[in-house]
Write a structure and sequence with these properties.
mainly alpha
């Protein structure tokens, strides 16, 4: 009778986990270094261009454009093989991580710029103007996108950017769309193109609003308070709001700034609601296809919960002003890095070929947000 010797337990070298983590970090470093260097250059360039553009050009949009240029040049070199292909392969893990994780961290820190008491100071009329404008604009652009047969992802990003807070809102919605299990192969590349289109539209039509809305406010005889409400509820980027309202009066600027912050608060329910709808559709589609529901992502992304937690912390008033100021600067840095990384994956030729319908959608969206905002101000804040 023979006895089978007991099987020895598998041997794991000591500190295997630590070695794996070091390897993972090492894979990210080239791309992270490129994103960090580009961020430093872009922020410096944005400060230099600020006086020339009057603050209308967001550093996030500048970062996306720069990323698209670098990505196009690198992509052409990679296509030729050799050393360039090796460099591209080394850079990709770090830039992809930046476009995903750093972007979500920026959304969380964005919450530290918002205090609920500041929003409540608008009064029920001001808050009603914000809610009506955001909800009406979001719904109108979704309907216009379907009418113009613009791809749903592009329409959703444009609706979010125009109705809430420009590039930051587009960034937050991007993270939700990345988690859509129905996207299929090639979806990340297409999504980057959609993000580029949405950000370009926010920049173009937001810049037009800087000139148009103060002139229209004067022609319509709006009070400073009404003008501030209208500009804050209608213009996309914070910098654009400041540039537009600042030409009206100091009182209009103060009202417009708080109104803009109130719009940003609505980022969480819009993003969470979209995530819930996508999750429900995915589950229903899987059941109809006989694939079972399987595991699915939570309908409310963790970074949205983090954003809400940051808003609550800021609203308590326990954070020193120096901390909130620093958080604002860090948020900008994170968004610029993420936008540069996203831009590196943009297919510029494809974007140019498919931009006509989104451009029309942006024009109609700009009309929608300014028209709905003006109607809300005249009806709710006479």
């Amino acid at each position: 009778m023979t006895t089978t010797p007991p099987t020895a337990p598998p041997h794991h070298p000591p500190h295997t986990g630590a070695a794996t983590r070091r390897t993972a970090v090492a894979r990210l470093l080239p791309g992270l270094a490129l994103a960090a260097a580009a961020t430093a250059v872009l922020l410096a360039g944005s400060r230099l261009l600020g006086p020339v553009t009057g603050g209308a050009l967001s550093p996030l949009v500048l970062a996306l454009v720069a990323g698209a240029v670098v990505g196009s040049v690198l992509g052409r070199l990679v296509g030729n093989g050799g050393t360039a292909a090796l460099v591209g392969a080394r850079i990709a893990p770090g830039t992809e991580w930046t476009a995903r994780t750093v972007l979500r961290a920026g959304v969380v820190l964005l919450g530290l710029q918002l205090a609920i008491p500041d929003v409540l100071a608008l009064g029920w009329r001001g808050i009603a103007v914000v809610v009506v404008t955001v909800a009406g604009t979001f719904a109108a652009i979704l309907a216009l996108g379907r009418l113009l047969k613009v791809p749903h992802r592009t329409t959703l990003l444009v609706a979010t950017g125009f109705s809430i807070c420009g590039a930051a809102a587009v960034s937050a919605m991007t993270s939700v769309l990345e988690r859509d299990p129905r996207s299929g192969p090639g979806a990340p590349a297409r999504l980057r193109d959609d993000v580029a289109a949405a950000l370009a539209l926010v920049t173009v039509y937001g810049t037009v609003a800087i000139v148009a809305l103060p002139l229209l406010a004067g022609a319509l005889g709006l009070t400073d308070h009404q003008a501030g409400l209208w500009i804050g509820a209608s213009v996309q980027e914070v910098a654009q709001v400041v540039a537009a309202a600042g030409t009206v009066s100091a009182a209009a600027l103060a009202t417009a700034t708080v109104t803009k912050l109130a719009r940003v608060v609505l980022l969480a329910p819009i993003v969470a609601g979209t995530g819930a709808v996508l999750a429900r559709r995915s589950t229903r589609g899987a059941a109809e296809d006989g694939r079972g529901t399987g595991s699915r992502a939570a309908p409310v992304p963790g970074f949205v919960l983090g954003f809400l937690a940051a808003v609550l912390v800021r609203s308590t008033g326990v954070l020193p002003e120096a901390v909130t100021d620093a958080a604002t600067q860090v948020t900008t840095v994170l968004f610029v890095a993420a936008m540069f990384a996203l831009g590196m994956g943009v297919d510029v030729p494809r974007l140019a070929r498919t931009a006509r319908r989104p451009l029309l959608l942006g024009a109609l969206g700009a009309v929608a947000v300014t028209g709905i905002g003006l109607a809300a101000v005249l009806l709710l804040a006479p």
